[in-house]
Amino acid sequence: MDIIRTNTALLLSMFLMKGYAAVDPVAWSLFPEKGFPEVSRGETTSVVYTLAVNPRFPGPVVLHTQFDKIGGTFAITDKCNNVTVKPGGKCQVIIQFTASKSTPSSIQMSYQYNNNVIKLSRLNTSVTEVQENVVGAISNLPTQFTLSNPEQQPVFSVTYTNKGAASVMGYAGNSAGTNLLSATPESVATVSVVAGGNGCGTINNPITLAPGNSCSISGRLTPHAVGNLTVGGLFTYNNGANTVNPTGETKVVNGSGQCQLSASTNLLFHSPTYQYSDNVLQFKFTNPCATAVTLGTVSYTYTGASSSITPGEQYDQCSNTTLATNDSCTVLVSVIPQAIGSLSVSAQVTADSMTTTATASTTVQAPGYTHKVTFINQCSFPVWYGVSQPSGSVDPTQNPSPDAYLLAPQVDGQVSAAKSITITGSYNGQFFPRTGCSQQSPSSNFICATGDCGSGANAQCPNGNVYEPYTRVEETFTSTSQGGYDVSLINGASIPAELKGLGPQSSQSSSPAAPYVCSGAGAPIQPPYTPFTPQYPPPPPPAGPNNPPLTPLGSCSWQYTAPSSSPLFNFVSNTTTVTDCSSCSSPNVCGLAFQSTPSTGNVVLACGNLLGYWTINQLCSGNVTYLGANPAMNPSTVFNCNSPITNYSTQSYPTGTTAYDIYSCTPQGSSLESCYNNNNSTCCGAVDWNTTMPYLTWETQQAYTSNTDWINGGSGSSTSRLSPTPQQSIQWLKDACPTAYSYPFDDHSSTFNCNTSDAAQQNQVNMDFEIVFCPGGVIGALSQNP
Length: 786
Description:
- It comes from Legionella sainthelensi.
- There is one protein chain.
- By secondary structure, the protein is mainly beta.
- Among the domains are: 2-128, Sandwich (Immunoglobulin-like); 134-253, Sandwich (Immunoglobulin-like), CATH 2.60.40.10; 262-365, Immunoglobulin-like (Sandwich); 563-722, no CATH class.
- The chain contains seven helices and 49 strands.
- A hairpin with a 7-residue loop joins β45 (589-594) and β46 (602-608).
- It starts with a helix and ends in a 13-residue tail after the last strand.
């Protein structure tokens, strides 16, 4: 009986082994299926291999991987090597490629299990060289428009951008002064330049395009017959030696009796698009009809990779709006992919019972987690990113030069300019935007209107000094981890900026700091967060709200309303020096400007372009010297910077305490310390931003007490008052951006962290980050030409 049982077991075992041998115990897949997408020099792309163990296999499999690399720079995140995978389980290998040169590169992965070695096909990379000249792009061209019933006359734009390192002079059209725009064949439709719509010059009045700058020309199409149509533009430069001729395709069709809106996507997904990145898309709807139309509510859908979709209600110009003929409106929506793979997001709106849809698509890839920082420009003007170099922190920008830091302006319908650096060691400093930069010659200093850092000819900041005011983006790295990150307006502001870690939100929902995990500091649209009941650390602070609202972090409008509308808060270019503001006329703005270069610190009252905003913290710091002709406009006098605090308060402060000390929260003995840390009546700050009316943003802790001098500008009936009050001097900054620092003790509403690649916060990684300048194209009231 035992012999029969043994033989039966042997036969059954042989049968089962034969069954398992008929299938591969380990299967593999590649995303994207065709391998590495084509990239330009300086860009990064990646592929993901997934190894999966057949669920029918009788036991776990130990996997080993190897790689054969030829040329190029590859970074591998291998979660399969020497890993035991159970039946039905899987693991992933992420291979990241950075295109530093155009020579061929390739990589081949092999994996091994149970003495079996599987060599996968070699993956080749494709790198395109970016031509350093003028490039053209057509935007807002509909896919089709109607000949009649009703007739549509759509308006489109052609934008030319100087991608080179030197200025070029040119004009729209040819040397005969014709062919500014074209429509072929003209029997189908003709094109005309919209009145006042040529910003690209003519043969008799050419323009100069500085590096990174753009110009646009708008045209209107008039249909004549049904058929396909090619629309083009022409820009001639370098004394006629060079031309650029962008084209686009559309067609004329017969109408259905109803006129339909046209739709386009102005702001696309970031390229490349990373998991957990905040992509603020802009969709545009245009009424090409002969009569006005009323729109319904714009709605959003997506297909593909799981994503967080948050409409920007404050930026919705379209819902329930009436558009006149040829008028347009735009909407913004925040899209944060939560998974990798293909992704499409659409905006739909109905007008006169017809639904119009605009769509943006991308392929989402996993971050490499190598401490890579990507700078993205969505401003309509060029921006040069800056990296401060305080002691022990090094700017890793390769081959520094003005062109290396340059981010070209955003062009509607085109991918935003992006450049990346990788922090390989420690870094404790700041990143920042620079605008209005120029260089007299290749050997002269690189000087900027905002964010100037005293750089030489190569545009690299020589140390940690950057001349305020500017928008500060702060971050700390070590070789194996990273600290907190934030956006700061304490010493002033220039263009908007968003900084976000590319990780998931925390699942540790009982922590009051949970909303600040991997969220966007400075984001114009904050996504909703699952309501939670935070447990404040002991001892308990004064009572606050038990739960934050659905969107606990405030969205940044980047619209500033200065206290008392004082012009001294305006940071302007020195177009015209004045003694008072009465002579300033629009579009110029009255404010304080640097007399010459920012490095001098000398300021005067002037009329010019609005570049940013000063704060009392900076104006009273001693780093600014007023040289204006009108002493009544001296900020030190206006804001009583050096006046003793005893002029305004009946409370007891150390001798020598000034108004500036309470404005800046500079501790004096035991006074003017943070009100979050003690209950001293002469502490500094803090207003609980999550109890203010209106609600501004969530706080990780409530204040213990408050200082009446800080809130009211003084105390006692017989004393004068500081104007604006210290609270008012920062409230306007917090209103503009609730998630940015407005004063030194603003930690509990402005400090973010992102250290892990999983929501349970178990997998520590070298986090990657994205910094977006003018996120969503938002610039507030700042000049379009800084």
